Amino acid sequence: MRTHRSRWTAASIVAAVLAALVIPSSAAGAVGAVVTGPVAPDTGPTAGGTTVQVDASNPQKVIKQITAGLASVILFEDGTASAFGNGTDGSLGNGKFEDSDVPVAVSIPEGTRFTSMASGAFHTVAIDQDGKLWSWGRGWSGQLGVGYEVGARRPAPVPVAAPDGVRFVSVAAQTQLSFALTDTGELWAWGVNGEGQLGVGEDAIVVWAPMRVLLPEAVTSFGISTSHAIASLESGAVYAWGQNNYGEIGNPNPSRLPIPMTVPDGVTFPGPVAAGGDVSYAKGSDGAWYGWGNNTDGLLGPNGLNGRNEQPVELVVPDGVDLLDITNHYRTSAAITADGSVYTWGYGRNGRLGNGSEASTNVPGRIDVDAVDHVIVGGAFFLAFTAPDTILGWGLESRIGLDSKVPVPLHSYGVANVASVTFDGVPAASFEQPVDGVLDAVTPPHASGVVDVEVTWSDSHRNTYADAFTFGTPPVVTVDP
Question: CATH number of the domain at 63-413, please?
Answer without folding.
Answer: 2.130.10.30
